[in-house]
Design brief:
Layout: E1 6-10, H1 19-23, H2 25-30, E2 34-39, H3 44-51, E3 56-58, H4 75-93, E4 98-100, H5 107-115, E5 120-124, H6 131-136, E6 142-145, E7 159-161, H7 175-182, E8 191-195, H8 202-210, H9 212-215, E9 220-224, E10 243-246, H10 253-258, E11 262-265, H11 269-278, E12 282-284, H12 295-305, E13 310-311, H13 319-331, H14 333-341, H15 348-361
Parallel strand pairs: 1-2, 1-4, 2-3, 4-5, 5-6, 6-7, 8-9, 8-11, 9-10, 11-12, 12-13
Helix pairs in contact: 4-5
């Protein structure tokens, strides 16, 4: 019998696979449940999780490629290694269940859980299940989903509409601290935040810089250009001119959001649901089909249909169209705020917590 006061968590590759997991930590602790996180030490998840003070155990995995490359040959042996690592950890720690957020880091823990008869619960962020969750689904007891429409694509006996877990700390940002941190003017122009996810978005960065002078005529700008944009030469911050640039924000992000009036963003599920929680008017530039499976396009279209967001396709993005989209969204900002305030989206943190607690009791 498992330890009812301990669970494993997995999910990595992007911050969107990690932060929803972290949103569950405090609620779980309130129920007396501890968490051990499984992932790659070379993965993005390692730094985020260990910085948060959560125990971390290495479980190997590898990205799943939809096309044949030399790296494809590395996937089976590394996934197999990760399965054996998971099984050993389960025998040692005896967790009550395993919660997998998606991404390639979820498959070894999901299979390891199935082999040891440890309940596995998955979470899908996007409108349609990603490859990792499709592979994990046969080994899972339940699959929690962010969007109600996703239920149509899943087995009824496994799918649960929960929403997505979101960090409660996002609501605790301090506007004054944000301005002090960036050096921008609290009495100046409204603040535009530009963020392309934890890794960054080269297309967004280049489009912003192509019309930065024009944008600065209307907004102060916080530019989070991404931690993996080695080829992008970001301008130096010029707070006196209304421009602040940084690769990636951590603890200070809550304060930056608090001072932000308008957001230009990719359309990853975690990011846009955070904008919904914060009720920040936004322009979404989803990752195009040429570089994705189309999940961000579906996410953005859904949010636009609900009246939460404006959408600008990357293939249509020029300096002129970007500036136009920002100005039109700013002019209609109250309409967007009203739509987000009227949203009936579920409290994902509490709903997912219920599914986890039920799995722990089985």
């Amino acid at each position: 019998m498992g330890n009812s006061k301990l669970i494993f968590m997995a999910g990595g590759g992007t911050a969107g696979h990690v932060y929803p997991n972290l949103a569950l930590i405090e609620p779980l602790k309130a129920h007396g449940i501890d968490v051990i996180y499984l992932g790659k030490k070379k993965g993005l998840e390692y730094g985020i999780v260990t910085d948060a003070g959560i125990p971390f155990r290495e479980v190997n995995s590898e990205r799943f490629f939809r096309y044949l490359t030399l790296k494809t040959l590395l996937t089976p042996p590394r996934v197999l290694q990760g399965i054996f690592q998971t099984v050993r950890l389960i025998h040692k720690e005896k967790p009550a269940m395993i919660f997998c957020k998606g991404g390639f880091g979820s498959l070894p823990p999901a299979i390891g859980g199935w082999l040891t008869r440890t309940p596995v619960v998955l979470h899908e962020s996007d409108m349609t299940p990603g490859l990792a969750n499709k592979l994990c689904m046969p080994f899972a007891k339940k699959l929690c989903v962010t969007f109600a429409d996703t239920m149509e694509h899943l087995p009824k006996e496994k799918a649960v509409y929960t929403g997505t877990p979101i960090r409660a700390s996002l609501l605790k940002g301090n506007r004054e601290k944000g301005f002090a941190y960036t050096g921008l003017d609290p009495k100046g122009k409204p603040v535009l935040m530009v963020v392309g996810g934890s890794s960054g978005a080269h297309a967004l960065n280049e489009a912003l810089l192509s019309c930065l002078d024009q944008i600065l005529e209307h907004f102060q700008v916080i530019h989070l250009y991404g931690s993996k944009q080695e080829e992008f030469e970001a301008p130096q911050s010029r707070p006196e001119s209304g421009y602040y640039a940084k690769a990636y924000a951590k603890d200070e992000l809550v304060d930056l959001f608090a001072m932000t009036d308008l957001v230009l963003s990719r359309a990853g599920s975690n990011a846009i649901n955070e904008l919904l929680l914060l009720k920040k008017p936004n322009v979404l530039v989803p990752l195009p089909l040429a570089a994705s499976r189309g999940d961000q396009i579906l996410n953005a279209e859904y949010f636009a249909k609900q009246g939460f967001s404006a959408v600008l396709r990357q293939e249509d993005m020029t300096s002129e169209s970007l500036l136009d989209a920002l100005m039109k969204t700013w002019e209609r900002r109250e309409d967007y705020i009203q739509s987000m305030s009227s949203s009936k989206a579920k409290n994902g943190t509490q709903e997912v917590l219920k599914v986890i607690l039920e799995a722990c009791d089985d």
